[in-house]
Amino acid sequence: MSIVDFFLHNAGIFYSFIFLIGLSIGSFLNVVIYRLPLMLDKDWKAQCRELLELKQQTEQVITLSKPASTCPKCQHKIRIWENIPLISYLFLKGKCSQCHTPISIQYPLVELLTAVLSLTVAIKFGVSWQTLFGLILTWSLVAMSVIDLQKLILPDDITLPVLWLGLLLSLFSIFVDPANSITGAIAGYMILWSVYQLFKLVTGKEGMGYGDFKLLALFGAWLGWEVLPLIIILSSASGAIIGIVMIVFKKHKRDIPIPFGPYLAIAGWITLIWGQQIMLWYLG
Description:
The protein contains ten helices and no strands. By secondary structure, it is mainly α. Helix 5 crosses helix 10 (261-283), helix 6 packs parallel to helix 8 (210-223) and helix 9 (228-249) packs across helix 10 (261-283). It is globular. It starts with a helix and ends with a helix. The mean pLDDT is 89.
């Protein structure tokens, strides 16, 4: 019996496996969320120095695997048993084992969120290729959303490979056919690019970043052009509601930009899981 057949006949084990994998991937995504912006910043500065013909500075090499994770305050090296997703946070009571500095709640939340979203994808698509690639898309969206919330950037290092993957999958009609995927990618980019240019022409300000164009193009490549209006409506509605709540209850200043990427990600993921049902309900 193959592993696929085993999972097909043991749904509970399959869902449990996906949940645990989601927790583990969530732990890795925390590393990506923290380190990728630092890696990009170092790379951008190095390119600027090279362009300006300035002397390159010797700095510590940062990758997703090096250096080893440490406490930001006391530099205590995180041991294996202190890095078990979710469990270690609860066992350590949310504090560093050495200096007792509070650990950001972001870490267990990202792990739990990734696990729950992964389980939802598995329940939706079952033991299939759609689940495998739906998980990859979901994990990428979690990383991009948190990075955008914190740094106001949607890294091309994640967005572009996932966009190209969506186009590649269309050759095998995993989610949509090639014509739908290519048209969706082009339309997704051009829709927000046009909105950006119109807003800039009218107000003289930039209303969004180019990363948002690429993210909507990504969803067009994965899910096709037909769902783009739904994604735009859902993202606009969620962005407006959450933005108003932040301004009213958290006293978020109106002149501080609010990233649009997380709302696009939320809308795109909802469309991945329930898009057909929503559109049938609306048309019905």
